[in-house]
């Protein structure tokens, strides 16, 4: 591993600019990739599933498919990136972001839509934790939360922009063009990542099993980590319910158009954009516990 990449960037002026450039490249990729992903989530998928004849319970299952994949793959993806390096996992996740929207164009029923959503969820499951770990690798030791907050802001901006774009397209009854544009944006995100460099230690093949076993033991022995993960799980349960049924409630009960529903999801993401950088700075200066508890 390049020693310069493991030393706090703020302490090495000649490396600082390239390291920051890598962070911004990752942030640009996240902006585009999560815009693409959000276009294929709400309000698009619940309305599309309803058009395909899915029942309310089936829509809930379809929307939960990507979360199922995330629950199954995020920990293995993080472990694998620790022992094999970040790059291959990042590019795999970005590739799934880019190609999956085109698969929606071939969907003809609820079961196939569920399978596509299941596969699409692997993009965030792989890319999300590995991108965060990469930013943590690059960041100066005393500013990791600040850098992660800046990266997360780009990700949240994509999550805000995606529903707005999808809402306007769906309002014109153009599900097909929404999936097509989502795919183009996703490919652009993957291309933005193509020049990014990652520098992390890798574990030689004979030691990988032991490294993975030790990593799992450390995770499950850390009570604070488990408690934080439980809080995150509760947050995502609530968020998943809103993603699945708020579009249907908005259209059928409130009489909102798809574009108006898209703006509702964008407003929620906008508050996240505003809060994340501030929480990152606060966390670096005042500790992690307070910002986590306020969530």
Descriptive overview:
41% of the residues are buried. The protein is mainly alpha-helical. It has helices at residues 3-6, 13-39, 44-51, 56-84, 87-103, 110-138, 144-171, 175-193, 208-221, 223-252, 258-286, 289-294. The two termini are 37 Å apart. The protein contains twelve helices and no strands. The protein has one domain (14-294): Growth Hormone, Chain: A, CATH 1.20.1250.20. The radius of gyration is 20 Å and the shape is globular. Helix 3 crosses helix 10, helix 4 (56-84) packs parallel to helix 6 and helix 5 (87-103) packs antiparallel against helix 8. The longest helix is centred in the C-terminal third of the chain and has 30 residues, at 223-252.
How many angstroms does the end-to-end distance come to?
Answer: 37 Å
Radius of gyration, rounded? 20 Å
> What kind of sheet is the major sheet?
none
Q: What overall geometry do the principal axes of the alpha carbons give?
A: globular
- Determine the mean pLDDT: 78
Q: What is the CATH architecture annotation?
A: Up-down Bundle
Enumerate how many helices there are, as a single number: 12
Indicate the CATH class.
Mainly Alpha
What structural class results from the helix and strand content? mainly alpha
Kindly identify the CATH topology. Answer: Growth Hormone, Chain: A
User: How many β-strand runs?
Assistant: 0
Outline the low-pLDDT stretches: 1-15, 201-206
